[in-house]
Predict the structure.
Amino acid sequence: MKQSRAPITLTTDFGYRDEYVGVMKGVILSINKEIPIVDLVHDVAPQDICQAARIIENNYNYFPTGTVHIAIVDPGVGSTRRILAIQENGHFFIGPDNGIFSPILERENTLDVFSIENRALFLKKISTTFHGRDIMAPVAARLASGMPITRVGPKIHRETCHLIKLRDPVLQSNGIAGEVVSIDRFGNIRTNITNTCLEKLHVEQKPEITIKSYVLGFSEGSYATLEDDKPTALINSSNEIEISVKNKSAAKLLNVKKGERIFIRGHLA
């Protein structure tokens, strides 16, 4: 009988310089060598739980039903914090109970949350510093192979899970105040203001975006349609307001870092 093999995605702050990502894959493949493993991202800023939470929330739905999503940004590894297994909308999520799954846990959709405690599923020797390898990877491999989630440990109330508040944009009488949440490797400046939020704002023409002392225009096109050397805001593939410069780094040109404030002028529609 052919063994089940749903995909597993990995989202971590491990980077690629060390062996951490590779050895987790080795553990997964040792349990079921047919499991497809997808590296979603491994350069989350170290200990940046909020960034990882946004990445998981924005991207998990692009994977097929049954996918197991491991998310590890885990400053509390080795402490008494729990490790969660969540089943929601046909997807599984495994990671520390530190707020990394806050957007998923806060939704009203039907979901089941479990505390991973069944030591029979773990590696025999458990490190105090690498639960991703010793606990999360083997449990994820077994879920991806068809094991019922009820075997991981006791079901818990989602209200007992640790939640963090992601900084949302603020709708004001004269516009929307937001902030820079990340800089991608191309130097594009990603913000927490979404197109859905922008649609609540009434502007006479195109929106004007202010960041630091710069007032930027807005484009409804793509990167290729931007003017040379002119920082411009657009809607990116994650439905966020993003500031870009054609073929250059907007972050370097504007000297912008994560946490910088951004404002879009207008009034509520």
